[in-house]
């Protein structure tokens, strides 16, 4: 990323770099990604680096999520997908996973009215049936209440695995084939996409990963085939609007060829 000024100012109760508005002005509204996906990484490291319990890092990560959802909507992004909890995350200590489940349920309830009032449509991807019953119920309430909203789509991946998503889609197609509802020639990339948990969403144009890790961590493996990647060392609790704008500017500097060549 390009270097930015170190001077900080307070906006909306947060310290942000004072060049935010000038950076936003650099964005080309006609070249914005339709769909941005984010691997929200670094909550635990944020907490342990400060001598705090890991659940407090997740609480701070929740605040970052609130900021980025608002920022993405303000910037005109049509769809935002956040990787909140993977199927592999169940291997973490029970105290941490229980705390996360409560945080997801509390956050979904707390944010519903504001998101609904701002026209955000909420969706959830993953093996939701394996989540605690009360959380499943809350997610259904949020999806149903916001289903007709026409603003930004906010898709949260909970108990999500890219491989599991693909396996579940294959199983669904095989079941239809067994019922003689389709045959091999009917299976196209579009049909396959319609059987993933992200059905109805365009593939991500931009994938952002926080905390500096250089891997995709089993996230949207089918969907990110041609996504542009942007990795930042910033931990998720510290990720703010200027970091999102930096990622968007980085994206707009790319030449997307989709396997072809750059036009002369």
What does this protein look like?
Helices cover 40% and strands 16% of the residues. The protein is an alpha/beta fold. It is globular and about 60 Å long. The N terminus is likely disordered.
The CATH topology corresponds to Undecaprenyl pyrophosphate synthetase
Cα gyration radius (Å): 19 Å
Give the class from helix and strand content and strand pairing. Answer: alpha/beta
Strand order of the largest sheet: 5-6-4-3-7-8
Unreliable stretches covering 5 or more consecutive residues: 1-6
Order of helices and strands: EEHEHHEHEHEHHEEH
- CATH architectural grouping: 3-Layer(aba) Sandwich
Q: Between the first and last Cα atoms, what is the distance in angstroms?
A: 26 Å
TL;DR?
The protein is 40% helix and 16% strand. The protein is α/β, with parallel strands linked by helices and 264 residues long.
List the helices and strands and how they pair.
Layout: E1 8-11, E2 14-17, H1 20-26, E3 35-39, H2 43-48, H3 54-74, E4 79-86, H4 94-117, E5 121-125, H5 133-146, E6 153-160, H6 162-178, H7 189-193, E7 206-209, E8 228-231, H8 241-252
Parallel strand pairs: 3-4, 3-7, 4-6, 5-6, 7-8
Antiparallel strand pairs: 1-2
Helix pairs in contact: 1-8, 3-4, 4-5
Which short descriptors sum up this protein?
disordered N terminus; Undecaprenyl pyrophosphate synthetase; alpha/beta; two-stranded antiparallel sheet; 264 residues
């Amino acid at each position: 990323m390009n270097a930015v000024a170190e001077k900080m100012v307070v906006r909306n109760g947060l310290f942000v770099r004072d060049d935010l508005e000038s950076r936003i002005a650099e964005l080309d509204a006609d070249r914005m990604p339709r769909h941005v996906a984010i691997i929200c990484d670094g909550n635990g490291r944020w907490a342990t680096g400060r001598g705090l319990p890991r659940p407090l890092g997740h609480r701070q990560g929740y605040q970052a999520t609130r900021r980025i959802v608002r920022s993405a909507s303000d910037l005109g992004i049509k769809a935002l997908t956040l990787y909140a909890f993977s199927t592999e995350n169940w291997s973490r200590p029970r105290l941490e996973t229980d705390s996360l489940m409560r945080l997801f349920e509390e956050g979904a309830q707390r944010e519903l009215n504001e998101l609904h009032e701002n026209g955000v449509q909420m969706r959830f991807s993953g093996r939701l049936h394996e989540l605690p019953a009360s959380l499943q119920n809350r997610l259904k309430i949020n999806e149903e209440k916001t289903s007709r909203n026409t603003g930004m789509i906010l898709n949260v991946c909970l108990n999500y695995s890219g491989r599991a998503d693909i396996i579940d889609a294959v199983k669904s197609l095989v079941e239809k084939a067994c019922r003689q509802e389709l045959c091999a020639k009917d299976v196209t990339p579009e049909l396959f996409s319609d059987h993933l948990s992200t059905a109805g969403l365009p593939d991500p144009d931009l994938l952002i990963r926080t905390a500096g890790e250089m891997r995709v961590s089993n996230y949207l493996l089918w969907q990110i085939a041609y996504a542009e990647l942007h990795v930042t060392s910033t931990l998720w609790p510290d990720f703010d609007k200027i970091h999102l704008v930096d990622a968007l500017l980085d994206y707009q500097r790319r030449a997307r060829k989709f396997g072809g060549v750059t036009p002369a």
